[in-house]
Amino acid sequence: MGILLSIIRTSLWDFSRNLLRTFLTSLGILIGVSSVILLVSLGVGLKNYIGDQFENLGSNILIVMPGQIFGNSMSQGGNFSGITFTEKDFLNIAKIKGIKAVAPAYVKTVTAAFEGKTEIGSYYGTTADIFSMRNLEAEYGEVFLPGDVSKRKKIMVLGPKIAEKLFGNKEDAVGKTVKIDEQGFRVTGILRSKGGGGFGGPDFDSFLYIPYKSSPKINQEKKFSVINFQADKESAIEKTKDSVTALLEKTYDEEDFSVIEQSQIQETVTSIFAILNSVLVAIAAISLVVGGIGIMNIMYITVTERIREIGIRRAMGATRNNILMQFLFEAVFLSTIGGSFGLLLSYLIVLIGSRFFPLAIDVMSVAAALTVSTSIGVVFGVLPARKAALLSPVEAIRYE
Amino acid sequence: MIILDHVNKIYQIDGEEFYALRDISLEVKEGEFTAILGPSGCGKSTLMHIIGLLDTPTSGKLLINKKNVTKLDDNELSRLRNEFAGFIFQQFNLINKLTVLENILLPTIYSAKKYTYDPKTRALELMDRFGIINKQKSYPNKLSGGQQQRVAIARALLNEPKIILADEPTGNLDSKTGRTILDLIRELNQKESITVVLVTHDREIAESCRRHISMLDGKIV
């Protein structure tokens, strides 16, 4: 007890006499710890954000796409061999038991014009099911109905982003006519914003939703690049997936299309970001090692400066272990100070930064940061402390 | 109390053997006041370090209270050093970042000894006796040389050692202060019968001691 107290007191005395040195030494660990915590927070935040985004896009959704998206082997992976689906495919899919809604989509980049103003947007030829399936609601006006599709009405529903670009005030768009390729479509509704469009998800806010039958000029053959469908419950996902696959295999080669679950896309996107994030965290961890070397360097200097003190303590009966513990404690103290302030700093940055970025402090990363910074003190402090402990008492006490 | 039996201390310098001590056999009896006299480099300090367990002989035996201590490990040596010997150095060797009182109490923090007295009370009594009681909270570098050496003596006495080892204790003091410090050490020997081994190059000091040993080139002459 007496030893510990004396060790703490002499360490504090030393630190207070060399405030600048103590600060600079801990700074390395401070920067390392805070960058690791920040990057982990960014990773966790991003994962949550992606999860929320996909949640927003509706549940139990499957997507039929051309090519092999998740190939079993490298040679098949990412084969986008361009088949398109037909109206017949989608009508047949709609008949399958367990499928609640089907929304095929023909997507094309087009120029939308209103009273001489033009904007680039994404034409999205589809059915009325898309709105219920994707939880899309009209903020102003109304979305179109299945009846509007069969009547081939020349109408459209605008995503809020494109509506704002064309009209300035979104509300003004309802009832106006927007031209695409010289065809006029009356705007019936403006959607509530879904956000997103960033991390791999589709940008629903920039689409121009038009009944697929209403625009023969743009999509003459009624082809679809994608067919979205929704299972009526989670347990039906696998079964409907198999049924749809079996159905399409009658028409297409099995390698030319894939039926994927939306959650699969989410997993892929999440894992890509997780890999990126862990690379960044690994790079940040290097700074922790550099910080540790800084501590080791200073501890060597400290030991050299205090050889005489070590000799005196040995003469008074201090064992090698007592001396080892004293210098080890100082190294751990330095690294823990750095770790704690690094934690504090990263907490403040997360507090402020979470308004602009998806950041979330992870309790595990906090515990890990403190454990790691303490261990760095031990690992990088042990060599200088050993040097101090192994000094011969006689040489130490004679040291000038 | 202390017996050195054919002790050699050999250093390797550039591959050549250098005898700091050559075949030293010596007995120090309890209550004796022994001076070791010799020019610098004669090995007198090395001899003192070996008696004080700060250093180990290359060959030969060191017996303390009939026990061979040359085979003890670091923990046992440290404990013996802590309880058996008290050191006084020419350079005082106080720790400047600790207060005077903390310096005097330094041996207690490394001690496994069961105290039959309160170490702090003893420290204050010693300070009072040496006329430095008002310096408790001062730092050593603010004290005069004589005062610093008194602090060092108080520190050496704290654990009630059997032997005081003094290495040129007056070497950094003016002659008047030196004499009072020497008188103090003599008083400890006479009144409290603490064994004293004093290392000096000053013939006058050595001859004033009851027993003196002369050394030259690592040998007793």
Automatic annotation (TrEMBL), chain A:
A molecular function GO annotation: transmembrane transporter activity
Places the protein is found: Cell membrane
Residues covered by the MacB-like periplasmic core domain: 22-246
A single Gene Ontology CC term: plasma membrane
Domain ABC3 transporter permease C-terminal: 282-389
Transmembrane segments: 20-46, 272-302, 323-350, 356-383
Similarity comment: Belongs to the ABC-4 integral membrane protein family.
PANTHER family membership: ABC TRANSPORTER PERMEASE YTRF, MEMBRANE COMPONENT OF TRANSPORTER-RELATED
Protein name according to UniProt: Uncharacterized protein
Species of origin: Candidatus Gottesmanbacteria bacterium GW2011_GWA2_43_14
UniProtKB/TrEMBL annotation, chain B:
Keyword Electron transport annotated: no
Keyword Transport part of the UniProt annotation: yes
A GO CC annotation given for this chain: membrane protein complex
Pfam family, any one: ABC_tran
SMART domains in the record: AAA (SM00382)
A single GO molecular function term of this UniProt record: ATP binding
CDD domains reported in the protein's UniProt record: ABC_MJ0796_LolCDE_FtsE
UniProt entry keywords in alphabetical sequence: ATP-binding, Nucleotide-binding, Transport
Domain ABC transporter stretches: 2-221
Designated name of the protein: ABC transporter domain-containing protein
